[in-house]
Amino acid sequence: MRICLVSPYDYTHPGGVSEHVRHLAAELRSRDHLVTVMAPSNEVDDDNDIPGYVRIGRSVPMPGNGSVARIALSFHLVRRVRQLLDAEGFDVVHYHEPLVPALPITVLRFHRGANVGTFHAFQRRNLGYYYGRPFLKRYFKRLHSCIAVSAPARDFVSRYFAGDYHVVPNGIDTARFHAGLEPLEALRTPGKATILFVGRLEQRKGLPTLLDAYAEVRRRRHDVRLVVVGDGAMRWGYERYVESEAIPDVSFLGHVESGLLPRCYASADLFCSPALGGESFGIVLLEAMSSGVPVLASDIPGFRQVITPGRDGVLLPRDDSEAWTRAILGLLDKPRTCRGLAEQGVITSRRYDWARIVDAVLEVYSEARARARLHMVAAGVHDSVPGLG
Asked: Distance between CA atoms of 267 and 193, rounded to whole angstroms?
């Protein structure tokens, strides 16, 4: 098939949706499909060296859901979008967050073939969806099939746009993240256990809970260190807090190149994700689990989709540093429990391998193409639409 993946987010800036699109594109290409990725960017021009990527517009930062999304807000994209759609004749266009301005909506407006939308987000509420629903409904109706990456993501979006959603989770590359990789020497200290955090340094990721818990752990024992992987606007404040509170052995690595990230997990004895909410799925949890690292995570809806408490991980109250302190101290003293969690975590993670996820996505594509054919036949325009023959 000729497939186009459309994302509203800056494709060259680190982010969960962009990573999802990259891996999905790679797995689809491995099965001999022709894949184009359409997304904005501020960092590359049209002569970029990213396979199959077509830059459409520039992005601007927009705060929302405790984070900052970099999206293309300009609606002056019509000419470029129509040229690409006419030239490529895509069998399927797959939109990631299809109702986020402005690129997905522009493509939805003009693509006459099969349209699939994946909804990634989970929030308590979305004022854009609430007030924009009358306008957005006309575009939602152009989707022939819908995917949500988790049950919480499905329940969230269906409050505003009722539909028949397939739950197809995010995937991970189990060949990239696996147990037995060589640790990074800089992240290991003889005689000390390494606790690892991976995530953007923003409020919703809950790093202060872990910092306070770790500080208390260090008051009671000295055979542990903390490694923080990730960057963001709050990094400076976190570093100053660690310095002012004299919390020992905390390393802030900033953004780590993707090639080194699996070895960061391989260097850890415990992985902690104390997110406060707003997570639709636990991709970092699965990366750690696939790497054979015991996982502690907040008891929030998105993480419950991944972790079975006491079996392949530990779920803890969010924003409760005392509970995190007790859990960390308990696991540090129970190597057999840690091994059991790690072994079961590896087994659980295999269910989310990209090969399995793409099987499910391709089934949705087939459904969308069949529905698009029926719609076009009913409208009497089937023969004029590429990809629907």
From this structure: 9
